[in-house]
Amino acid sequence: MAKIYNVTLIINPDKLGELKQAFDEIGICGMTITHVEGCGTQHGKSGYYRGTKTDMSLLPKTKVEVVVSKIPVDTVIEAAEKVLNTGAIGSGKIFVYDLEKVYRVRTGETDEDAL
Fold first, then answer.
1. Are strands 32-38 and 59-68 parallel, antiparallel or unpaired?
2. Which of 15, 88, 113, 115 has the fewest CB atoms inside 10 Å of its own CB, making it the most exposed?
3. Distance CA 98, CA 31 (A)
4. What are the angstrom distances between the C-alpha of 90 and each of 48, 49, 72, 102?
């Protein structure tokens, strides 16, 4: 059985469309998207967001979660980095977690079959 990974990305909301397209191209068809707020290294500084001066302690971000097993996790990360890397603060973060078990409630399928 192949390992199963949860890849969680915290991204700039403006990059969501491009990321979805990149994931579609490598065969990822399911994802969960949540609109969140957060801060990173720019915490506590004022700056500009979409042309408006703002307190940068909490910025709007998008959290994207995908679960993969057949698609290599390195392929997922490479596809995301190509889209997300702007070279500037706020390009995003990628977290990769091992999943021990996956259940599909409706059918009782587990692990890869549940994906």
1. antiparallel
2. 88
3. 17
4. 12, 11, 26, 32
Contacts with 91 (C-beta within 8 Å, 6 or more apart), sequence order: 12, 84, 85
Write out the H or E segment, with its range, that includes residue 96.
Answer: strand 93-99
Residue type (1 letter), 7: V
Q: What distance in Å separates the CA atoms of residue 86 and residue 30, rounded to the nearest whole number?
A: 25
One-letter amino acid of 100: E
Q: Are 54 and 47 in contact (CB under 8 A)?
A: yes
Structure confidence by residue, pLDDT tens digits, 14-46: 999 999 999 999 999 899 999 998 877 766 566
pTM: 0.83
